[in-house]
Design goal:
The protein has eleven helices and five strands, in the order αααααααββαββαααβ. It is an alpha+beta fold and 258 residues long. The chain is elongated. The model has no long low-confidence stretch (mean pLDDT 90).
């Protein structure tokens, strides 16, 4: 009788956990106080329990928002539809926010909250970086500012928000009853990044978002100032550029110059 290779056993066990066609039960020796099917069912259930626990850990505020029963129901649906593709459970749930948008299309505040949860976790264990200090910019010659651009820290993330998601997040963080979800009059923008060892986020206005996005695309600071002057008065454009640059330095968002 030919014995299966270890890789074949691993594949069979994997397929059993995912309810894919397999004959793994035939490879398990009978014996002990419980049946083979009972033993395999223990692993079958434990696999799902562990993945749900992983989602609860990564999406703590979303879990609190939905409540135990609804979150677990959604998480188990997600587990069945989206098995892990990475050996490191750290990355499981990367597309949970998008999945929630399809699962709750009339309540997109849920997927937005999950997005914030995920990006804060991503920022927490993202790549380390040493931010640029204001003193380095103070040493630049005036002519250098004509072509100067910026590189930003790798944990920086920008996204639009359609709902009062941040108010909901803050209420949950304070263990208070969150406000009723409301669609914002116009989209807000959220920045998420890590400063030193702590994830941070703040909302910004569309002008700062536009300036930041242009710089991230490779435009120079002078070009961004010129673009701002087409939308605002010269005085307003200068104030937006100066205040934004000051905030980016204080928040330690700038990695270096280009």
């Amino acid at each position: 009788m030919k014995h299966p290779q270890l890789s074949e056993l691993q594949t069979g066990f994997h397929n059993h956990l995912l309810d894919l066609p397999n004959s793994f039960v035939q490879e398990v020796a009978d014996g002990g106080g419980i049946t083979v099917n009972h033993r395999l069912n223990i692993y079958h259930n434990a696999y799902r329990v562990r993945l749900v626990e992983t989602l609860q850990d990564a999406f703590e505020k979303t879990w609190a928002y939905l409540g135990d029963e609804l979150f677990e129901s959604a998480a188990r649906e997600f587990v069945e539809e989206t098995p892990p593709h990475n050996r490191n459970l750290r990355w499981y749930g990367a597309d949970f926010s998008e999945w929630l948008a399809k699962r709750f299309p009339e309540d997109l505040d849920i997927s937005e909250l999950a997005m914030v949860d995920w990006q804060l976790r991503r920022a927490f264990d993202g790549p380390n970086a040493t931010p640029l200090r204001a003193e380095a910019l103070a040493k630049l010659e005036p002519a250098q500012w004509e072509t100067l651009g910026f590189r930003f820290v790798p944990t920086l993330f920008i996204a639009p928000l359609q709902y009062n998601t941040i108010s909901i997040w803050h209420a949950l963080d304070q263990e208070q009853t969150p406000p009723v979800a409301e669609r914002l009059p116009e989209p807000a923008w959220i920045l998420i990044w890590r400063k030193e060892w702590q994830p941070h986020f703040r909302t910004i206005k569309s002008a700062e978002q536009a300036a930041l996005s242009l710089l991230m695309e490779g435009k120079s600071f002078a070009e961004v100032c010129s673009d701002l002057s087409e939308q605002f008065s010269e005085q307003e454009a200068a104030a937006i550029a100066a205040n934004s640059l000051y905030a980016w330095l204080q928040d330690e968002l700038i990695l270096g110059t280009i």
